[in-house]
Description:
The structure holds 2 protein chains of 2 kinds. Chain A is mostly helical. Chain A has helices spanning about 10-30, 40-50, 60-75, 80-105. The longest helix of chain A has 27 residues, at about 80-105. Mean pLDDT of chain A is about 75; it is low at about 1-25. By secondary structure, chain B is an alpha+beta fold. Helices cover about 35% and strands about 20% of the residues of chain B. A 5-stranded antiparallel beta sheet of chain B has the order 1-2-5-4-3. In chain B, β1 and β2 form a beta hairpin. The longest helix of chain B has 18 residues, at about 125-140. Chains A and B meet through α2 and α3 of A and α2 and α3 of B.
Amino acid sequence: MIFLDLPSIHISSLTLYSVLYLEGAMSAAASSSATPSAAQVLSLFRSLLRAAREFPDYNIREYTKRRTIDSFRHNATLSDPSQISTAFAHGKSQLAVVKRQAVVYSLYDSPLRSVMELQQVPF
Amino acid sequence: MASVSATSLSFQPSLKLSTRTSQGCYKTSSLEVVSVGWNRRTFPSLRSSRFCICAVKAQPETVQKVCNIVRKQLALPAESELTPDTKFSALGADSLDTVEIVMGLEEEFGITVEEDGSQNISTVQEAADLIEKLVQDKSGAS
């Protein structure tokens, strides 16, 4: 018989993930009724890019920005109102996740910085 | 004194009975003042006004920085012609591109552009003027 000795941090992170997933799903279901306007979509886009800035880690910060831009570009062709509403609700839930995760990452920020963050190459 | 964003309107009464006059414009550093004055030959009770418009004019360095960011954001070649009056839409930018440009400008200049302000930006010059104003406001506040 094999016992999986998972550290407590793994269990807590799994619990956190499931809570965030359920919360995102519920908020998506709740707000997928009304079709958002173009101004609301752009406001969400701006909010996600602003929230991405809060990550102290370069890689996660750039990944979040890139993922946001790619997703909005991909969904720019949507024409069905229900699909637009669903995508918008999903974006709002992701914004909440990004904001929370930025806070979590800032609590465990490393003093080391990525070489990509250097303004001038020293050589 | 009525004040609307970067434009200030001042009305000064005049009791002189004279013919219509006009005044030119003069510049002081980055502040451009355009003054238009007129007087009517009429009763003193119907006093005329002097109309003054003050607008922040962006410096060439700011315009150049904005051009560079727009080029980078829209992946334009370095030799492409980009004037201050060039519209973003003419360069093939959509609304998402415009938001990305504004976000890039925020990071470059260390400012925060409000949503209503960013909606009014459609050319390089407008972006540069808004940045100049926000930078001045920021330096004035600190």
